[in-house]
Amino acid sequence: MIRFVAWINIAAALGFVWFWTSFHAGWSFPMEELRTLIPNFDGYYGWETSFIVPDLLVASAMGSAGLALLRNPQHRMAAISLVFTAGACMFLVVLDTTYALRNGLYTLGHPFSYDLLSVPLGLTPVVLLTLGVLGPRLGLGFSKAAWNQQPGDKT
């Protein structure tokens, strides 16, 4: 299961890169078509493109930690890094989803709406699986044993 978590995090990291590549190439975000569909287009474009750096930083961490965990399933620092990136992903997903819902971006009647919707639908399961598998291995579970663990106990 550890290797599967590593693979899905690597795939998610590549998904971030694909999203921004297709966005800037105009494949998923044809500016002239969407300019007429998105109210306050310039504001939205500025807001959406502010995610490039955080998304790619998260993708870099996910990809490198995923590769490290794939090479060595006992790599504790890679597991910790993936737990942290899962939290960062969830934060980005909540920001993106909240904005899209409040501004009707999922109802544009354009394929870009589906690309946007694929972000929370794709990343949320990755986050939950990563936390569900790696969290308990690191002693970060919701079980009574995890909460009663004392410093220095083996995880």
How would you characterize this protein structure?
75% of the residues lie in helices and 0% in strands. Helix 5 packs antiparallel against helix 6. The chain has one domain (2-142). It is elongated. By secondary structure, the chain is an all-alpha fold. The protein has helices at 2-25, 31-35, 41-49, 52-71, 76-102, 111-137, 144-148. The longest helix has 27 residues, at 76-102.
Describe the structure using short key phrases.
single chain, elongated
Number of domains: 1
- pLDDT average, as an integer? 90
Total helices: the number is 7
Based on helices, strands and strand pairing, what is the structural class?
A: mainly alpha
Based on CA inertia axes, which overall geometry fits? Answer: elongated
Q: How many beta strands in the DSSP annotation?
A: 0
**What helical percentage do the residues reach?**
over 70%
Beta-strand portion reads under 5%
Major sheet details: none
Would you spell out the secondary-structure blueprint of this structure?
Blueprint: H1 2-25, H2 31-35, H3 41-49, H4 52-71, H5 76-102, H6 111-137, H7 144-148
Helix pairs in contact: 1-4, 1-6, 4-5, 5-6
Summarize the structure.
The protein is mostly helical. It contains 7 helices and no strands.
